[in-house]
Known about the structure:
This protein is of the alpha+beta class.
Amino acid sequence: MIKRIWHGxxxxxxxxxxxxxxxxxxxxxxxxxxxxxxxGIEVLRRDLETEVEFITIMSFRSIDDIIAFQGPNYERCxxxxxxxxxxxxxxxxxxxxxxxxxxSYE
Length: 106
């Protein structure tokens, strides 16, 4: 399994707007594409002193599935215009990690 990780930061006053864009546009848009090998996405949020950090972690079966989805420049991120308007800054590329081990601690 491959984890595709991306970071974006916004001002605290814009965090709710960005979360809304994620919930109503970005995540449904990804799901609607029915991407082969796509297994899901997690969204993390961390409130800092002067900004709010968001991390998305997309899971794919293989790097080939990501390349089929994103093309040969698969590391490059895509940030919709609506999100760019509320984000302060963001990663221009996504990082890709192979999942070595997954354990459940429930």
